[in-house]
């Protein structure tokens, strides 16, 4: 198997991560494996430490993104079975043999669903994560315990056809989850503990959340456009009912006009969605 790790300024945790991976592989009697670390333009001593760890190194001249780093590592991988993890010691690599066991049962991807106190959602993260999870679950039509976990096992062969469509940023794993599920692939989730990270997080909460939402909507529009338009139509319909109820209680006629307008807009959006879905079916054929 090939283990791909993106790294950006991870001098504090990269050595411990690599040593843990090797120890787990030897303990599980995994004799044939490679470790590919993609140094994404680190400005600290990450690459210097990597040279002493006996791993394959891909270096970017400057920071270009988590997703792009994973893409480069996956393309360079020798083996079909790919494991991705982070360089900051947050994911317990000793759970990978369990993920591999499930993967061998015929799943296209097995994902570690994070649990524990270090994954507890803050007051800021919680509503944003819930919104993103709702949109993804609505699109995939199934419950998803962790939409963007960075510990997962999958087939390179199954991923390559959709790899160019996945994003180059922190939303890579979210777009990957959505792409696998909306193309009918088998995905399994296994609960894993989430550890305290070494170093500082690179995630920018609001900017990355908005970007993730953008890629989710783009993915839905690509794989199942009708779902996207139904979502918007439902939102307009809810607004319509809200305007009507407020109009009844306040006797403000303008609200009735807003209600009628929202209802008509909902119908128009739904019709456009049906047209987009028909066009997609024609293109697919």
Biggest sheet: strand arrangement: 3-2-1-4-6-5-7
Shape: elongated
Largest sheet: 7 strands, mixed
> What's the CATH architecture name of the largest domain?
Alpha-Beta Complex
Beta-strand residue fraction: 5-15%
Could you give me the name of the CATH homologous superfamily of the largest domain?
Spore Coat Polysaccharide Biosynthesis Protein SpsA, Chain A
Our count of helices gives 10
Q: Low-confidence stretches at least 5 residues in length (pLDDT < 50)?
A: none
Structural class: alpha/beta
Care to count the β-strands?
7
Description:
It is a single chain. The chain is built from ten helices and seven strands. It is of the alpha/beta class and 285 residues long. It folds into two domains: 222 residues, Spore Coat Polysaccharide Biosynthesis Protein SpsA, Chain A, CATH 3.90.550; 60 residues. The protein has a seven-stranded mixed β-sheet with strand order 3-2-1-4-6-5-7, with helices on both faces. Helix 7 runs parallel beside helix 8, helix 8 crosses helix 9 and helix 9 runs antiparallel to helix 10. The protein is elongated and about 75 Å long. The model has no long low-confidence stretch (mean pLDDT 88).
List keywords for this structure.
285 residues; alpha/beta; Spore Coat Polysaccharide Biosynthesis Protein SpsA, Chain A; seven-stranded mixed β-sheet; 10 helices; 51% helix; 14% strand; elongated
């Amino acid at each position: 198997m090939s283990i791909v790790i993106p790294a950006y300024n991870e001098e504090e945790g990269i050595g411990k991560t690599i040593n843990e991976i090797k120890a787990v592989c030897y303990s599980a009697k995994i004799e044939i494996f490679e470790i590919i670390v993609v140094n994404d333009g680190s400005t600290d001593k990450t690459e210097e430490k990597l040279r002493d760890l006996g791993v394959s190194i891909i270096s970017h001249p400057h920071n270009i993104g988590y997703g792009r780093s994973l893409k480069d590592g996956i393309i360079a991988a020798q083996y079909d079975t790919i494991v991705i993890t982070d360089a900051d010691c947050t994911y317990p690599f000793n759970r990978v043999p369990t993920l591999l066991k499930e993967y061998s049962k015929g799943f296209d991807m097995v994902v570690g669903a994070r649990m524990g106190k270090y994954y507890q959602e803050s007051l800021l993260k919680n509503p944003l994560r819930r919104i993103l999870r709702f949109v993804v679950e609505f699109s995939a039509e199934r419950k998803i315990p962790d939409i963007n976990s960075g510990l997962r096992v999958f087939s390179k062969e199954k991923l390559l056809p959709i790899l160019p469509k996945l994003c180059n940023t922190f939303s890579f794993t979210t777009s990957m989850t959505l792409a696998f599920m909306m193309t009918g692939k088998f995905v399994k989730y296994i609960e894993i503990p989430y550890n305290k990270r070494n170093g500082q997080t690179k995630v920018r909460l609001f900017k990355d959340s908005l970007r993730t939402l953008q890629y989710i909507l783009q993915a839905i529009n690509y794989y199942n456009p009708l779902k996207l338009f139904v979502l918007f139509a439902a939102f307009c319909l809810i607004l319509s009912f809200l305007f009507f109820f407020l109009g009844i209680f306040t006797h403000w006629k303008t609200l009735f006009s807003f209600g009628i307008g929202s209802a008509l807009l909902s119908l128009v959006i739904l019709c456009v969605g049906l047209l987009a879905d028909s066009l997609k079916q024609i293109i697919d054929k």
